[in-house]
Amino acid sequence: MASQLDAKHLIGLLLGAEEDWPRAFEQLLARLGPIRTADGVSHDVTVERLTIEPFDLRQDVHPDLVIDRLAYWYYHPREWLKKAALVNGTYLLNSPFTFQSMEKHSAYCAMLRLGLKVPETVLVPYKHPVDNARWAYTAAKYNQPFDLDAIAEKLGYPLYMKPFDGGGWRGVSRVRNRDELHRAYDDSGEMLMHLQESIEGYDVFARSLTVGAETMVMNFRPELPMHDRYAVSHDFLTPETGSEVLAISRLINAFFRWEFNSCEVLVRGTEVHPIDYANACPDIAVTSLHYYFPWAISALLKWSLFCTITGRRPRLDLETANYFEIADSDRSYSEKLTDYAALAEKYFQTDRYQDFCASALPNLDDVVRDWVASPDFDALLVDTVRATYPQAEHDRFLAHFRGLLRLWEKDNAGLG
Ligand SMILES: Nc1ncnc2c1ncn2[C@@H]1O[C@H](COP(=O)(O)OP(=O)(O)O)[C@@H](O)[C@H]1O
Ligand SMILES: [Mg+2]
Fold first, then answer.
1. So what's the pLDDT on residue 169?
2. What is the 147 CA–ligand 1 centroid distance (Å)?
3. Tens-digit pLDDT profile for residues 248-302
4. Model confidence over 129-168: pLDDT tens digits?
5. If pLDDT is split at 50, 70 and 90, which confidence band does 100 have?
6. Cα–Cα distance between 368 and 31 in angstroms, integer?
7. Given a cut of 60, is residue 1 above it in pLDDT?
8. Which pLDDT belongs to residue 189?
9. Which of 125, 129, 123 minimizes the C-alpha distance to 104?
10. How far apart are CA 371 and CA 367, in angstroms?
11. CA of 171 to the centre of ligand 1 (A)
12. 84 burial via Cβ count (<10 Å: 0-12, 13-18, 19+)
């Protein structure tokens, strides 16, 4: 094919301590080879791990798209990403401009405004003084005394106290009575806390992982150890509730322009209560996702390729008015969800994404299947297990994960 029809693209990875999924991503991309789009162009896509170094604000950014796993705690790469977004128009998963609001609090507020069933939630002021010279004067003059017990009584016990910007269960307490309430608040120190009504006796904890236009809703068991939290189960929600959970995930992700995110809902009877909806750096370790890992890597690969190859532009304007127009109408809850879904699918260009996958990546499912069955994948699993668990547990965990991945292979044989 004539070389003028060839296009080159670069995907950058900003990584912390993870090795498993980046290696998976690199291996799959190499196995996939050049990608031919319907217009006859052959696309050569490479991936590179980015390093951290001084940068000139006017300097070019080479990757077309960056998958970021660092900026939520490491500010130098975060500032580099902001520059890439503003100066260079680089496509970012996720953009710091969206995850500045990527905490529970913003998500709760948006979901309330959109009419979703967020449990009753109250934000209380800091327990300890904020480290700022102006604190004493400001607090003395303007901080209102408040009755913590009265707030808790109104929410009812048990309740949850958790940081407004939480993640990874940091600072989360289940509070059963007054004593526990005061202890938890005293311990909160400089964390800003929500008190939240508990959804007691829920039937299902559903955790959804979204990568661009794809979402997987999984049955999550938070009380179990990490490697057992995701159950391999397919019909754990009724079709109606399953589509409601899916619609809520996609709505919130589209609303905030979060394209790589995990969300949690508690389902009690037919009611779906969202509790945790903002995670800029969702856990996709093979040791957590096991059976769902091939799906997650495929989705990440497909969405990255879709964005780079079709030249999808980052869109940071939230266009909240479009959503609020639906929220403010007299439509029913389920009519609203349907109308939100249309906005979400428009944002994610779901039809275009599916056409792209069908025409430009027809062999991707086969590539993923061959790779999961290959020695490369097994070596990745062995290395990850060795790096994650104490030696005495290696055999047990390897057998556990190999078994789950064999199950994935069996369930996915001959599809696509
Ligand atoms: N309102 C609630 N009702 C019942 N359980 C809750 C509620 N809020 C939190 N939890 C429990 O606490 C865990 C941690 O809370 P979550 O909001 O998910 O914080 P994090 O961001 O740290 O994961 C949840 O996985 C769930 O098991
Ligand atoms: Mg959570």
1. 87
2. 24
3. 999 999 999 999 999 999 999 999 999 998 887 899 999 999 999 999 999 999 9
4. 888 899 899 989 989 999 999 999 999 999 999 999 888 8
5. low
6. 9
7. no
8. 87
9. 123
10. 6
11. 11
12. buried
pTM for this entry: 0.91
All residues at 6 or more sequence positions from 299 whose CB lies less than 8 Å from its CB, including other chains: 211, 212, 214, 216
Q: Separation of 277 CA from ligand 1 center, angstroms?
A: 11
* 279 CB within 6 A, ligand 1: no
Lookup: tokens for 77: 């790469």
Does pLDDT of 208 surpass 70? yes
For residue 46, report the phi and psi dihedrals to the nearest 5 degrees.
Answer: -120, 160
Residue 324 Cβ < 6 Å to ligand 1 = no
From 122, 160, 170, give the residue whose CB has the most ligand 1 atoms within 8 Å, as the site to mutate: 160
pLDDT digits (tens, 9 = 90+) for 360-398: 999 999 999 999 999 999 999 999 999 999 999 999 999
CA distances from 180 to 27, 193, 399 (A): 50, 15, 41
User: Distance (Å, rounded) from C-alpha 167 to C-alpha 169?
Assistant: 5
* Ligand 1 pocket check for 229: Cβ under 6 Å: no
Q: Is 78 in the pocket of ligand 1 (CB under 6 A)?
A: no
Q: Please tell me if the CB atom of residue 282 comes closer than 6 angstroms to any atom of ligand 1.
A: no
- CA-to-CA distance for 262 and 207, rounded, in angstroms? 7
Question: Which residues, in sequence order, are CB contacts of 116 under 8 Å at separation 6+?
Answer: 248, 274
| Residue 12 alpha carbon to ligand 1 centre in Å | 33
pLDDT band at residue 2 using 50, 70 and 90 as cut-offs: very low
Taking the CA of 262 as reference, the closest ligand is 2
- Residue with tokens 């951290």, as numbered in its chain: 52
Find the largest Cα–Cα distance for the chain.
75
Give the position, in ligand 1's atom list, of the atom nearest the Cα of 119.
Answer: 1
Cα of 29 from ligand 1 centre, angstroms: 36
Q: How many CA atoms lie within 13 A of 175 on its CB side?
A: 32
